[in-house]
Amino acid sequence: MAFTADKLLWTDRKRYFGLPLSFTRYAISEDRLFQATGILNLKYEEILLYRIRDITLSRSFGQRIFGVGSITVTSSDKSRPVLVIQNVKDAPAVKELIHQQVEDMKIRRRVRFGEIASFGDDMDDQLDGEV
Asked: Cα 72 to chain center, whole Å?
């Protein structure tokens, strides 16, 4: 694998029927998420972890049968705002690994994106009354 990171925390390939029969490879280092595709013409993509804004896990019935899942990563990266890590083994654990690494990188770089709430004081009172 030609990823340039010194220490990779996780690597896998896109899987078909649970088997790594694809030329799409994924890796996570301490500060980046990588995707390499192709066999003759190779394309390498990377996303800095502190730019990741949202991580979603999806597992269809077929994916659950074969023990795989897909993780959708949304970032503020200009060239690749959405990256789908498709059909990887042990997807819930991989999602948690990405989440932990993203949080660690944001703390190290002192980057925090505040959540924007559109609720006013009136809405908070209504929600408290309904509980």
From this structure: 6
Residue carrying the six token digits 């959708």? 72
Query: Would you tell me how many other CB atoms lie within 10 Å of the CB of residue 37?
Result: 15
Nearest CA among 18, 19, 76 for reference residue 49? 76
Please report, for the chain, how many H helices and E strands are present, in that order. 3, 7
**Alpha-carbon separation of residue 83 from 11, 75, 96, 126, 128 (angstroms):** 16, 8, 16, 38, 38
Taking the chain (131 residues) in consecutive chunks of 10 residues, what is each chunk's mean pLDDT?
A: 72 92 93 93 93 95 95 92 95 96 89 52 47 41
**Residue 2 has what pLDDT?**
63
CATH number of 8-112: 2.30.29.30
- pTM exceeds 0.90: no
Q: Is the dihedral of CA 85, 89, 95, 101 positive or negative?
A: negative
Task: State residue 3's pLDDT score.
Answer: 67
